[in-house]
Amino acid sequence: MYVRALPTTDVNRNTEWFTYPGVWTTYILILFFSWLLVLSVFHCSPGIAWTIVHLAHFTVTYHSFHWKKGTPFGDDQGIYNRLTWWEQIDNGKQLTRNRKFLTVVPVVLYLIASHTTDYQHPMLFLNTLAVFVMVVAKFPHMHKVRIFGINGDQ
Amino acid sequence: MITIPYLTAVSTYFSYGLLFAFGQLRDYSRLLFDWWRTNNLQGYAPICLAHEDFYIRRLYHRIQDCFGRPISSAPDAWVDVVERVSNDNNKTLKRTTKTSRCLNLGSYNYLGFGSFDEYCTPRVIESLKKFSASTCSSRVDAGTTSVHAELEECVAKYVGQPAAIVCGMGYATNSAIIPVLIGKGGLIISDSLNHTSIVNGARGSGATIRVFQHNTPSHLEKVLKEQIAEGQPRTHRPWKKIIVVVEGIYSMEGEICHLPEIVSICKKYKAYVYLDEAHSIGAIGKTGRGVCELLGVDTADIDIMMGTFTKSFGSCGGYIAGSKDLIQYLKHHCPAHLYATSISTPSAQQIISAIQVILGEDGSNRGAQKLARIRENSNFFRAELQKMGFEVLGDNDSPVMPIMLYNPAKIPAFSRECLRENLAVVVVGFPATPLLLARARICISASHSREDLIKALQVISKAGDLTGIKYFPAAPKKQDEEKNGIKLD
Which stretches make up the Aminotransferase class I/classII large domain (chain B) (predicted)? Predict the structure, then answer.
């Protein structure tokens, strides 16, 4: 019923909320409820609904984790302005529990989406592309790498 | 240690996610709308980056009427709060001429010096007539009066250190002094919940900063060991200096620092201790000398004691107290001393008179009464709130008590409901506190009477029921029959 929240040592207010209890559950619940929402709005098959959820998840998380840089408030005087959210969490340390969880979720979504659409063609291609981009973006070797200067600084 | 109901944590994240999503949607529609409309500012760079401003525009402005409320009287136990109206959904607020008399639980008026005081105010007015409102000069030019010299001696004696230096602004005391004390090649280890002024001073100094888990001496020891073993980054040379920065009372938690353990660890590893007593000086301890007196730590063990006069002394400014050599060095090197205007002379007189009242040197025992009253008031209020089922943070004896709200919608709900019942409280949310842990922070004063506190408890209980923040089960009401039984014996 109750959980204990230990104060963290992360000074970056943009990312320290991810270290408190309840985040993982909320993330999974949001995905599940958005699947139900898509099913009720579009009246499609469950497989198409999971594909839509997977692709929407890809768009939203790619934009907010790997594209937007900096923090949504000005108090930290812009010291994180060159880092995307993914590069900021856990103070830049790689392969922490949070990062592993966030890498596993798109893969699991991909598996569910491809299984429920029976691996049929247009969906399979789109899903595979999405999960490939997502997982490669989260590799430790891609830390602070900007391919061809895309999303680099001026 | 904060105990959150799991469902509340999940719903709080979901609420913030929703607010964030709507904010982004509005931003995109604004982008489309502005792209379609021509802009007459071609070639100008934007004043602030759109993404940096996001939190203020899309979350803070929605509940702006709960923050920054103007007052039109002295911040005593009761205060006149100016009412504001908004015609464009809280984007701008206009003051009206109406005021409402509210019970003031938001001011840091710990000892009640925030309004007219029979000993201090006549002396301040005399000093204003004699020295005028401002010295119009920095300390080294023409800004040191006899009152300034007396103030520094008085503060040093009160705090228990050989010498002190006073600065005109509390925030600037931290952010201007820390860069003077330490530079590149030094290490600052600060508590994770330290105030922004310390963070700014530390960042401005150029030293390496490491953070230890809030109020956890064992983690401090671990960090110290690691850092001393590793040395400076990249060159691995030994650190030139290590300063550990802690606060006496943490203003957002109401917790008192575990000073004896931290001081013993610092002595073991030869690190300097910098104690920021902004909220604890004058408010705790038997004679109001702060956290050292309360916990029995010898002031000679603390290398640099810093504090502000804004909270318990009803004035402005901050001080640094330490050894004579340290203060001499600061007087020659600190930019706040060399270039900033000195503290205004009537404010300095207010501090001196307040310290005289606290120590009983004015001939009455009002100081001791105030200290006893604030302790009683804080303990009574905290115990009653906990009995009602609220989650209240902070240690016993601390006059700061945050009531946890958690959900972002409860922040304005609680604040507006209390204002409707004529109770002025301060609510704090992200980014001043962690995302999950929004709270309403109550500051008890020695000038609150028992009736004021009981009325406040009734209003808070009602607002708490309406917003659903009684996260713990309420304690059962005590049965009085047993007490009567004993009396009959």
Answer: 102-460
* A73 contact residues in B (CB cutoff 8 A): 52, 54-56, 431
Residues of B in contact with A71 (CB under 8 A): 51-52
Q: Which amino acid is at A152?
A: G
Kindly state whether residue A152 falls inside one of the protein's structural domains: no
User: What is the Cα–Cα distance from B283 to B31, expressed in whole angstroms?
Assistant: 51
What would the pLDDT profile of A19-75 be if each residue is shown by its tens digit?
888 889 999 999 999 999 999 999 889 989 999 999 999 999 999 899 888 888 777
Q: Among B307, B325, B330, which residue's Cα sits nearest to residue B176? A: B330
Between β-strands B78-85 and B208-212, what pairing exists: parallel, antiparallel or unpaired? unpaired
To the nearest whole Å, the CA of B332 is away from the closest chain A CA by 29
When pLDDT is cut at 50, 70 and 90, the band that residue B43 belongs to is confident
Residue B337, SS3 per DSSP: helix
Question: Taking CB atoms and an 8 Å cutoff, what residues of chain A touch B435?
Answer: 13, 16-17, 20
Residue of A nearest to B56 (CA): A73
What are the structure tokens assigned to A12, written together?
Answer: 């970056």
Domain assignment present for A117: yes
Give the integer Cα–Cα distance in Å for B385 and B453: 11
Q: Among B9, B212, B431, whose Cβ lies nearest the Cβ of A75?
A: B431
Coil, helix or strand at residue B97: strand
**Which residues touch B389 (CB under 8 Å, ≥6 apart)?**
B464, B470, B471, B472, B473, B474, B475
In a domain, A98, yes or no: yes
Round to whole Å and give the CA distance between A96 and B413.
Answer: 38
Q: Which two tokens stand for residue A3?
A: 């959980």
Extended strands (E) in B76-130: 78-85, 94-104
Query: Is A2–B5 a contact, with Cβ atoms under 8 angstroms apart?
Result: yes
Residue B227 CB coordination number (10 Å) = 19
Total number of domains constituting chain A: 1
Contact A117, A50 (CB under 8 A): yes
Q: Could you say which of B6, B52, B214 has the minimum Cβ distance to residue A2?
A: B6
DSSP code of residue B105: -
| Burial group, residue A63, by CB count within 10 angstroms (0-12, 13-18, 19+) | exposed
Parent domain of A127: 45-147
Q: Do B3 and A3 touch (CB under 8 A)?
A: yes
Other Cβ atoms closer than 10 A to B268 = 10
Residue in A17, A70, A71 closest to B434 by CB: A17
B286-314 confidence digits (pLDDT tens): 888 999 999 999 999 999 999 999 998 99
Q: Is the peptide bond before B431 cis (omega within 30 degrees of 0)?
A: yes
Burial of A17 (0-12, 13-18, 19+ CB in 10 A): buried
Q: Residue B321: helix, strand or coil by DSSP?
A: strand
Global confidence as pTM: 0.89
Q: What is the ipTM score, two decimals?
A: 0.90
* pLDDT tens track for B139-169: 999 999 999 999 999 999 999 999 999 999 9
A60 assigned to some structural domain: yes
Q: Are strands B94-104 and B78-85 parallel, antiparallel or unpaired?
A: antiparallel
Question: What are the tens digits of pLDDT across the range B380-422?
Answer: 999 999 999 999 988 888 999 999 999 999 999 999 999 999 9
